[in-house]
Structures are given as structure tokens and as C-alpha cells.
């Protein structure tokens, strides 16, 4: 089992402010990867096999739902836990994310202690 600071988290979001806040909060405890769109997220995940992915839904081109479906259908990336972190907060959005294989769902604006705790919980399972 990897130590916490040996684990990699991929942050996928097209909003620089969200990325900056998450990187600042997590970089002391984890290695961080960042992508700004779905295609780059899939390429990064296949090449680097992060330990967990924080995934936005609303992005240009490929949305987070599509990214999650592709990652979960690929034998190389299907075991990576995905936590959606999004402004979409309707119950059917949450249900859809979980149906596509996400392990959790955090709504924006997010609270850093909650994000850290949920990451810790899901990393303990892998």
C-alpha cells in the first residue's frame, strides 16, 4: 500500500480557480495531476494510473459523464475511484454519476475539509 504522499490525484476541471484551490489544498499530501478537459483526463489516466480522480461534469467537448463512462469501460482505468466535484446538484445528476461508476459526489462550492475527508475515505478502500 502506498503512503499518502505517494498517491496521485488527478484533478479534471476547466475552471482555473477550482484547480488552484484544490491543488493548494492537496499538494502537501498527494502528488497532483491536472487536466482541463475530458480527452486529456483519459490520456493522463491511461498513462499515469492515478489513485483517484476528482472530476467536474460541465466541461467543453467531452463532459464528465462521458469521461467517467470511458474510464470505467477501459480495463486499464476502470478501478480508479472517481469523485465528481460539480455545481450540478440535482438528485438525478447524483444518481447518474453513481450509475456511471463514480464512488462519490461533491457539490460546488466545495469545502476543503470535506473534500480531504472523502478522498481519504475512498483511498483507504483501494
What does this protein structure show overall?
By secondary structure, this protein is an alpha/beta fold. The protein has a single domain (4-124), classed as Response regulator (Rossmann fold). It is 43% helix and 18% strand. It contains five helices and five strands. It has a five-stranded parallel β-sheet, sandwiched between helices. Helix 2 (38-48) packs parallel to helix 3. The longest helix has 13 residues, at 112-124. It starts with 7 loop residues before the first strand and ends with a helix. The model has no long low-confidence stretch (mean pLDDT 94).
Topology:
Blueprint: E1 8-12, H1 16-26, E2 31-35, H2 38-48, E3 52-55, H3 64-73, E4 82-86, H4 91-99, E5 104-107, H5 112-124
Helix pairs in contact: 2-3
Keywords:
single chain; about 130 residues; alpha/beta; Rossmann fold; five-stranded parallel beta sheet; about 20% strand; globular
Low-pLDDT runs: none
Radius of gyration: 13 Å
> How would a textbook summarize the main sheet?
5 strands, parallel
SS element count, helices: 5
How many beta-strand elements? Answer: 5
Q: According to CATH, what is the topology? A: Rossmann fold
Short description:
Helices cover 43% and strands 18% of the residues.
